[in-house]
Amino acid sequence: MSRWYLVEYPLAAVIALTFWLTLCARDESGGSAAALGVVCGVGLLLKADYPLFAGPMVLMAIVKRRDRLRTLLAICVPAAILATPWYVLHWWPTLRNAISAGFGKSALVQGTGPIFSPMALWKYLGIVAEWGISPYYLGLTAAAAVIAVWKRQFELFRELACLLPWLAPFLVFAFGGNKDVRYVAPILPAVAVGAACLLDGIIALRRWVLPMALAFPLVSLCAVSFGWPYHTGNIGYANHYEPHTWRQDEILARVEDTAVFPFARQKVLLIGTDRGSFNADNFQLFALQDRLPLRVETTAYGQNLEQLLQQAHGAEYFVYKEGGEKESEFFNLHAAKLRDALRTSNEWVEIPFGGSLPDGGTAHILRRIHAQQSEIRQSAGGAMN
User: Fold this and answer.
1) Which residues have a Cβ under 8 Å from the Cβ of 24 and sit 6 or more positions away?
2) What is the mean pLDDT of residues 162-180?
3) Containing H/E element for 201?
């Protein structure tokens, strides 16, 4: 999970912090409510569906207090100060993307069938159980719950009722179009907390029982991440650690060597490949790390070749991978045609870059000649002035 640059994982940490602060804000302290407001602002800047996860929790904190209006203001004011400047400029694209992700074309691609179909729901629950929670932890939690009932420790379930607002958004995803398991990542820590509380409540001999219960998941973690002590296949977003880089830093260094960055505006780098380890987001992270004035875009969502050619006309560099892992059958559908069009165009020239990538593919870098010549003239004119 730590090797995927996806916003749901930091969002999961923020949701966990939100839950803790809602418990703190249930007392009459004003500081905890203000801190909750700050965290809400950060969550809104991470992803637009943060209110879906945090809304039931925040409502719980407000209802439990007597000074509800003051608590509401203490939460909303810091959140608005942090999030409003960005949403004022981007509210419509953000809303449109959220609707499309949940019920649009991409949702159908990542779905399991008709949303109210029992078969689709059962399939989705299986995905969450296998790739989200794991069958081991699910079985361990179920066993702990059965033992708690057998020992008549019903107070454990009453104490766990505070987790319900955290778990409630799962119903939205269960009956939504998009069934990608990473979208429920912010909910999964609640399952972990519930399992831990049940185990803590039923186990009297914690010194030896808990290490035995948690020995297998520790070994499984090492196996999934590093292939030791046994080899296992990738499980959803849980992939093996790959010590070999995909050479994004080398590619950007080659781009920097051929660019006229002084006195220049921000340049556009267009990525013609969209795979898990070689995509626009990864390149943008390396560009930010090296403080390069590059804005990285992707061809993954182009509707037709004409649209992609227009996008390429606004870029100075085009990077793509040839060979190795194949492109998705759902995205980047016109990537091959775009590559051929640019390679045969007099406006683009290839920058030599040798060496292969970890999947056996080869990286190619194209530079738009006209853009480079125009920039040199602008730089020369600026120097003369």
Assistant:
1) 32, 35, 36
2) 88
3) helix 188-202
